[in-house]
Automatic annotation (TrEMBL):
GO MF term list: phosphorelay response regulator activity; protein-glutamate methylesterase activity; protein-glutamine glutaminase activity
Pfam families named among the record's database cross-references: CheB_methylest (PF01339), Response_reg (PF00072)
Residue ranges annotated for the CheB-type methylesterase domain, each copy included: 202-391
Record-listed 4-aspartylphosphate modification sites: 72
Entry's Gene Ontology BP terms: chemotaxis
Listed name of the protein: Protein-glutamate methylesterase/protein-glutamine glutaminase
Changes after translation: Phosphorylated by CheA. Phosphorylation of the N-terminal regulatory domain activates the methylesterase activity.
Domain commentary: Contains a C-terminal catalytic domain, and an N-terminal region which modulates catalytic activity.
Residue spans of biased composition, Low complexity class: 169-179
Enzyme class: hydrolase
All residue ranges annotated as the Response regulatory domain in the record: 21-139
Amino acid sequence: MSVAFAGNSTPGSSREAGPLRVMVVDDSVVIRGLISRWIGAEHDMEVAASLRTGLEAVNQIERINPDVAVLDIEMPELDGISALPQLLAKKRDLVIIMASTLTRRNAEISFKALSLGAADYIPKPESTREASAADIFHHDLIQKIRHLGARLRRKAAVASPPLAPASPAPATRGPVVARPAASAAAPAVHAPSSSSPLSTRPFSTQAPRVLLIGSSTGGPQALMALVAELGPVIDRVPVLITQHMPPTFTTILAEHLARTSRKPAAEAVDGEPVKPGRIYLAPGGKHMRVVRSGADVAIALDDGPAVNFCKPAVDPLFTSAIDIWHGAILSVILTGMGSDGMRGGKDIVAAGGSVIAQDEASSVVWGMPGAAANAGICAAILPLNQIGARVNRLFAGDRS
């Protein structure tokens, strides 16, 4: 039986206070019940509705007015990919997280959903009886709801700032004095909306010999935009990417990266040589490192425990690269939850390399890049659409 609670605000807008309202849409009563219990146990979110089909969601979206929807892909009457654009047409700022089992078809549909406006995706375990798989699903889902919902509310607050209290009129009207402009020689800083300005450090004077990229939530879209601009760099050096993503999904992502960059891109294979002209993507479920193999550099995959709750994780790639390229490393940390990449980035900077972080405004979630920025290890904190150009200049010899 479907359960729904009507919202208190105007459809099409999101509340700026109170628990996040989550609509769960899945034809499995077991999954609906499981997710609803998890959400109900959190202090900052509540179940706005528990529905069986996409058609129910579309018909009731305006009455329910949720902040976030967890939307299954395979459902009767109206499946998730068909319901997605209809839901967004009725509530343009709805955060939609697609949920699906780990099949190639569902992975491809999830990527299509991202292009149609879904905020993220999450793989459902094949069986909720598998304790470890259910625990990971639980942790990841709650974090995605929390962080994506919080970003939605921050955007709404910026779009509609509270009115400032009226101040008494001055007795006399004096000249308007402009604030002094920042000096051209001042160090570059980045000031996110929620904290004080962040300082940056100079880029390494060493010419980079490899490009390392780490990303998570929002990463597939960001990676596609970035690699489309990196043709000259990919021709000169190897590009290694760790994106937090499960098996099968990384297979599809690698295919998308190859098409977008028009360069060879594939999931990395254990023992294969690392050469310029190729993009190596960490396969889902395995950490990717680089090691010496005689006079060459090779990929090393391992099935060890999760790092920073992730597998693959960014830190193992970053730290392993130092033994190979020392300080001749340029690393980029893109949008994502958590702090993965920050510790490895610190090690890269200590070895003489450089870190670029995506800025808060262009990130889906400013967790990973924000952690690096707040740690003071970044040489630049840039909008996504400026990172490619800066990377190209760095590899062309411009270290400014």
